[in-house]
Amino acid sequence: MVTIGDKEFYKGIGKIEFEGKESDNPLAFKYYNPDQVVAGKTMKDHFRFAIAYWHTFCGQGDDPFGPGTQNFGWDNSTDVLQRAKDKADAAFEFVTKMGFDYFCFHDFDLIDEGATLAESEQRLQFITEYLKNKQQDSGVKLLWGTANCFSNPRYMNGAATNPEFNVVARAGAQIKMALDATIALNGENYVFWGGREGYMSLLNTDMGRELDHMGQFLTLARDYARSQGFKGNFFIEPKPMEPMKHQYDFDTATAIGFLKEYGLENDFKINIEVNHATLAQHTFQHEMEVAAKSGMLGSLDANRGDYQNGWDTDQFPNNIQETTEAMLVFLKAGGLQGGGINFDAKIRRNSTDLEDVFHAHIGGADTFSRALLTADKIIQSSSYQKLREERYSSFNNGNGRAFENGELKLDDLYKIAVDNGELSLKSGKQELFENIINQYI
């Protein structure tokens, strides 16, 4: 039995092992074999799976229509410090039993926010020291940290984009504290998710000024972290809305444009969440492709939405076709730049057994692993790559190559079009591409 600390919260569950797709053991990986080499890397190195502190250890199944249904042993203490230690013990036990190497957190996932800024800082410093010992004992690492600058009522009008300077200053203090904790825990990256950085109505919003403030705020955060020796990536996590009507980090393209406008593109990359992509009316793979095109495919939050629901349901990934298409982009881009795959997903409200969270993460890891294996086979064994290349073959030489090289003027295009006359249609072969995916799954 693998445990970290004096208590065992997930009793009766040992380390999750790879047993292969023929196994009927619900507490075993069927496709995720951490040591298996795919496209030159082990699965473990490709994915760098991480556990989301906020959902797995803080979520209790509550929703707008009722209180939580899940009673976790680490929440029972009435002492705030002991409760945080118990939660950390449970977290490291779970990550270790899953055989993963990483976790991710918001500052006040780790410990309850205090009544004052000073008390909050003391509490965060206390649990940070405790977590450093947990890391040393277990070998578990921090993929990235972040700050919750959206839940407290003080941030109802935003944090970095708040119209009140004193709220912006308070957010800055909170970000500093979260950066300090991330650096102390040797965090490899740091994430900004602008949950309320946006507006409910343009009538009372100076958008230009708020965007300038957000650019300045992120610049100050970057400069502080670098001054403290932080060498990792900063990530922006796009989302179009919810809780705000419109959020400034709407999607990957918008976030990249923002970073370039404010001179942050050399320090920041994109952390893409599946459910956020679909809320922006994009696919996961579209967002990945946009980030990869700009060299900013930093990290991924693995989850999915419900196709019948128009909000962020944060369900565990299980769509093998969608994930296979995403892994084609993943492999073509050479993988992630600095980040990993964080399971920003929660078990359902009516999943109330402690083993349910193991089933969920096992399924998520297997979905990504099966998709990676399938994508690699498609690239190596099918006509997929050849068909894609042939579709653009007219740019490989002649006038097409001259166009790509910037050697033609608009008048040249006109003359070529006149000489060509009317053109015949050329099929995009979409159904064939779709059939290739299905063939190899």
TrEMBL record:
Required cofactor(s): Mg(2+)
Subcellular location: Cytoplasm
Source organism, top-level taxon: Bacteria
Positions of Mg(2+) 2 binding: 273, 276, 312, 314
Positions annotated as active site in the UniProt record: 106, 109
Cofactor binding comment, as recorded: Binds 2 magnesium ions per subunit.
Alphabetized UniProt keyword annotations: Carbohydrate metabolism, Cytoplasm, Isomerase, Magnesium, Metal-binding, Xylose metabolism
Binding site for Mg(2+) 1: 237, 273, 301, 344
Broad enzyme group: isomerase
PROSITE patterns: XYLOSE_ISOMERASE
Subunit structure: Homotetramer.
The protein, known as: Xylose isomerase
Native source species: Urechidicola vernalis
This protein's encoding gene: xylA
